[in-house]
Amino acid sequence: MSDRGRPRSFDRDVALQKAVEVFWARGYAGASMAELTGAMGISPPSLYAAFGSKADLYRQAMDRYVATSGAALWGLLEQPTAKAGVEAVFRAAARGMVQPGKPFGCMVALSGAQPEDFDAGLHQDMTTVWQGTRQALHNRFERAQAAGEIDAGADLDAIALFYATVHQGMSLQARQGATADELDRLVTSALMAWEPMTRPDQA
Fold first, then answer.
1. What is the CB-side half-sphere exposure of residue 127 using CA atoms within 13 A?
2. Where are the alpha helices (DSSP H) in the chain?
3. CB distance 154 to 138 below 8 Å
4. Taking the CB of residue 76, how many other CB atoms lie within 10 A of it?
5. How many helices, marked H, and strands, marked E, lie in the chain?
6. Is the pLDDT assigned to residue 8 strictly greater than 60?
7. 21 CB contacts (<8 Å, ≥6 apart)?
8. Which of 27, 44, 190, 191 has a CA that sits 20 to 30 A from residue 87's CA?
9. What's the CA gap between 156 and 143, in Å, rounded?
10. Plot region of 99 (φ>0 → left; ψ -120 to 50 → alpha; else → beta)
11. DSSP code for 115
């Protein structure tokens, strides 16, 4: 019996991971449907049937990235102190953002650098993702403040924004050719701001 007309079988999880890699390397606008279907090993009809539109596929790819690479990185915040957590996250990011065999930078941070690429619906969804980094930092700093590690007078919003911005800047620098050593030195500089920002009551 001929297989003509039968839907092509494929591993959905593997195909989605390939989509992550294409979007991570090329961005939403830069990733063509031909590149996506070629990397995923599926036909356009199979892609639409399994994942929906390109925007739907991007949402699913970003969710996968956040749940895997993102969770592994930001889970490092859970050190005995908030400062140690921030350092652990950023030292790991300095290495991971220029890891051979993977796209450079952070997929979430890079997507935030070109918000005009998204339509209104996708932009709204991505705003929630972008805010996740800042919120994770803020939550950790709240607990550090309650524990007395951070002064009561410290501006947690500003501290979280500062380190979220450093992380995005590292991602852009990695994409532009910065080395792991250069990124690590940037982390050292960023950590020098910790005491002035978290201990204003003692200034």
1. 8
2. 12-30, 33-40, 44-51, 54-65, 71-74, 82-96, 107-112, 120-146, 156-175, 180-191, 194-198
3. no
4. 17
5. 11, 0
6. no
7. 39, 102, 103
8. 27
9. 11
10. beta
11. G
